[in-house]
Give the backbone structure.
Amino acid sequence: MRWLAAIVLLASVGCGGNPTPDDKVQGNWIFASSDGLTGIGLKFNDISYDLSGLVLTSSNTAQAIVEKGSFSINATTLVFAPTESTCPGPIPIYQMDYRFSGSVLMITAGSNLIAFERNPYAVDSSFALTLGCDVSGSFVPSPIAPVSN
């Protein structure tokens, strides 16, 4: 009877172990340039992601290129399938290699290695964000809309 009670107790509290790659990426991540003028916000929630490229235009305004969709993950690769964007589609499914360095999420984007940290900041409701897309080097305001792959 004691063995049965111990097994039930272990099953109810879990045995610990290592989190899966999917468990480790869940939540809000942020990268900010060294000058603080540009950044990337990345949120993983279940199988969905939100990606925002930000450029500050003043102390309380910014421009943002936004992409949303679903993602999958394995031990070394993130696969993104965009479904919405502020840039016109189609936007193909793409993948990026990743790894963790301690608590930092390192994502390889082309030849760049981007270090994301957990985002401890709340959204400031007085902050004005203009959504849009970079078109030939110029930011053009545009709403988020469905895109195909």
Remarks:
- The radius of gyration is 19 Å.
- Residues 1-15 have pLDDT under 50 and may be disordered.
- The chain has one domain: 18-146.
- The first strand starts at residue 27 and ends at 32.
